[in-house]
Design brief:
0% strand; elongated; mainly alpha
Amino acid sequence: TAATEKGLQVRKENAASAKENIQAMEMIKMYKEKGMTLQGIADKLNSLGYKTRKGKAFTTSQIQMFLKRIG
């Protein structure tokens, strides 16, 4: 429905503009450019206390999705 689509869009915009998410995306790009593995990037973000927008630890699949988004 239109309301569901609108809600999804708002959540995506909020996630993209959240300060910690912006920092995490920049770190993911930087670590990938340095040649780190997806697991290595997830481990690094988790060790620094970063969480996903749902408050969970990062996984390799989430790192991969971030990289696809920021292409």
